[in-house]
Design brief:
heterodimer, A: Rossmann fold, Rossmann fold, 2 domains, 13 strands, B: alpha+beta, two-stranded antiparallel ribbon, elongated
């Protein structure tokens, strides 16, 4: 077994790796290309960072390409992202023109590579038009939508649908997100990488150092929300929940740790709103961390008593998965993929308001026995369901299925 | 074990499988919609909502043992109907059309007896999904029943699903691959087959089923050896 696979066998078990080999044997040497719009920041980039080398160790010829564009392009794709999540605002034609032009420019650069590939995975709306811009394609193309598109703003969805409907298949994270498309829509929840800097075990000294660096008192309880400064993550609602909880837990601290992604132009505006809401409360720490702060985030998650992910809309909520993996119960917004991960009284609590979040914070800090018990269950739940190895297995299963045009079951020799 | 029996018996070929869920595009918000989709949906979707959770992403401590019952309880506010749906044992139905009919009969009965059931609406849809099952040969073989206790703990959950759950659909008598194979070894293993039949795969994760299979085989075969 190769190095990377050997390391994963240590976490996920040998049977899991053996299964990956068995499936990959039927895809050996095939050219697979993943395309997204950012190399760093955000869940998609984090998944691809390990999924690609792991696929290569299994014998596939996998590469990862990133499309790049100007400010208008990113404004357009951010608006598309919001629209797919239900934000009812039309997109200016000037931005759509930039979107189309950027895709034409990128297609010129990567056309031959994409047309030669056996499988192309296009992630999210940003590179979606590449399919129609590669008329000489010989492989199978799959559109992977990581966004909660359950109730999209229809005019924007109609525009995008035109680009994705001719793909051979699409992938959504949950059945609720699937749309009316004329091809199979596979359901694959995303995953976390247990061996990445963000999830690997850390020495206690490193956790203590991070606490000290940010002025967090380790003997006092603290809540942590890790997410981009984005309105759909409701950071202002988290501050409200913290203030309500403080009435019963005056020692409580709150850490809002936000990264930035190169494809998110709205981040700064939301950050300002969060700073205003926090005021001069010394027990609220707003941390704007660079995209490579994985070990810092890991340490914060391990030091926190409770993880919050109070999203109003969420594609999947990998920060919730990361929190669960650290053995912490998660108080999560009752939306999207958080519903798949947070099971009331088992792995945390689903909430619909700051008041609901405050109530659950109060419960968990009062019932430390339940907090510990739910934390242990949370880690096991992630081990069995949301590790990268399961994710990769489902990609391989999909590829084998598509290759053999299997509809219901296929028995390989 | 006699040489004659060995010569009449094929090795047990260990398979593995992986499952991926596929959306059908069918959604139900009311009991009537659920009923009509159950009537029309592909049979593999009915199968998926009884068994697919074992191999897919899911939480093992569900209150009820099939997705229909869970949705009626958690989202539709029909606890009595949920209980009625949860007692359906899919193992009893070798024909999936029969299972579909049973679901429809129970829902129709509820609709006939309680007019309010027509007006209940869930804020969360029941999403009908189905699955694609990819089966592959591991290359491993068992030649003697005595090997079972040492091999079973190493089987993947996919292998357990294929041989212990999926087999019920493939075999005419609705049993599983282990019992079917043991039957070719004559009456010596009838007692073991009876004990294996007693393992209830509902309410357990596949890894728990694997532990139970190992325990039953170990106890029986160790006792036989004594």
């Amino acid at each position: 077994m190769n190095g990377l696979l050997e390391a994963y066998a240590g976490v996920a078990g040998r049977q899991v790796i053996s299964q990956l080999h068995q499936l990959a044997d039927h895809l050996k040497g095939m050219k697979v290309v993943h395309v997204n719009s950012t190399r760093v920041g955000g869940g998609v980039a984090e998944i691809l960072e390990k999924l690609v080398p792991l696929s290569n160790e299994l014998g596939l010829d996998t590469s990862w390409e990133v499309i790049s564009g100007d400010d208008d392009f990113y404004q357009c794709t951010k608006a598309m992202h919001n629209a797919l999540q239900g934000h009812s605002e039309p997109i200016d034609q000037r931005l759509l023109d930039a979107y189309e032009q950027t895709n034409r420019d990128n297609a010129d650069k990567m056309r031959s590579q994409l047309e030669e590939a056996d499988f192309v995975f296009i992630h999210d709306p940003q590179p979606a038009p590449l399919f129609s811009l590669c008329p000489g394609r010989r492989g199978l193309w799959v559109w992977r939508c990581h966004i909660d598109a359950s109730r999209p703003f229809r005019p924007v969805w109609r525009y995008l649908r035109h680009y994705v409907s001719d793909y051979n298949a699409s992938i959504f994270s949950l059945p609720d997100f699937a749309q009316d498309l004329p091809h199979p829509q596979y359901i694959i929840p995303p995953s976390i990488d247990p061996l990445s800097d963000k999830n690997i075990e850390l020495p206690q000294e490193e956790i203590d150092e991070v606490n000290e660096k940010f002025g967090i008192a380790p003997h006092r309880p603290f809540l942590l929300q890790v997410s981009r400064f984005d309105r759909f993550k409701d950071p202002v609602g988290v501050i409200k929940a913290y203030r309500l909880s403080r009435k019963f837990n005056p020692d409580l601290q709150l850490v809002l740790a936000g990264g930035t992604a190169t494809d998110d132009p709205e981040g700064e505006k939301v950050l300002d709103e969060v700073k205003t809401a926090a005021g001069d409360d010394p027990d609220i720490k707003i941390l704007l961390l660079p995209p490579d702060s994985h070990r810092t985030i890991n340490a914060l998650q391990r030091a926190a008593h409770i993880i919050i992910q109070k999203s109003i809309k969420e594609g999947f909520g990998l920060t919730a998965t990361e929190g669960l993996w650290k053995g912490k119960p998660v108080i999560g917004g009752d939306t999207g993929g958080i519903r798949l991960q947070v099971i009331n009284y088992h792995t945390g609590f689903l909430v619909n308001s700051p008041e609901g979040a405050a109530l659950r914070v109060r419960y968990l800090l009062h019932r430390r026995d339940r907090l510990e018990e739910m934390g242990a269950k949370s880690r096991k739940f992630v081990l069995e369901n949301f590790l990268l190895t399961r994710h990769l297995r489902e990609y391989l299963t999909l590829m084998v299925g598509l290759l053999h045009k299997a509809d219901y079951r296929i028995e390989l020799g | 074990m006699s040489t004659d029996k060995e010569s009449n018996t094929h090795p047990f070929s260990i398979k593995d499988c992986a499952l991926i869920a596929i959306a059908t595009g069918r959604r139900a918000y009311t009991l009537t919609e659920l009923r009509n989709h159950i009537r029309d949906v592909r049979l593999d979707s009915i199968y998926h909502h009884f068994w697919g959770g074992l191999l897919g992403v899911g939480f093992e401590e569900l209150e009820f043992n099939n997705d229909f019952a869970n949705w009626c309880r958690k989202h539709l506010g029909e606890p009595a109907l949920a209980e009625q749906l949860s007692v359906i044992d899919p193992v009893e139905f070798t024909d999936l059309e029969g299972l579909r009919r049973e679901l429809l009969d129970i829902i129709d009965e509820r609709l006939d007896s309680n007019e309010i059931s027509y007006f209940l609406r869930s804020s969360r849809a029941f999403e009908f999904t189905r699955s694609l099952l990819v089966i592959f040969d591991t290359g491993r073989r068992i030649t003697l029943p005595q090997e079972l206790p040492s091999i079973l703990p190493d089987l993947s959950t996919g292998s357990i699903f294929y041989h212990f759950i999926d087999a019920r659909r493939r075999l005419k008598d609705g049993s599983d691959d282990f019992r079917f194979w043991l039957s070719s070894w004559g009456e010596d293993y009838n007692d073991l087959r009876r004990r294996l039949a007693g393992i209830d795969p509902f309410f357990s994760s596949l890894s728990q089923v694997r532990e139970e299979l190992t325990r039953v085989c170990s106890e029986f075969l160790t006792r036989e050896a004594i």
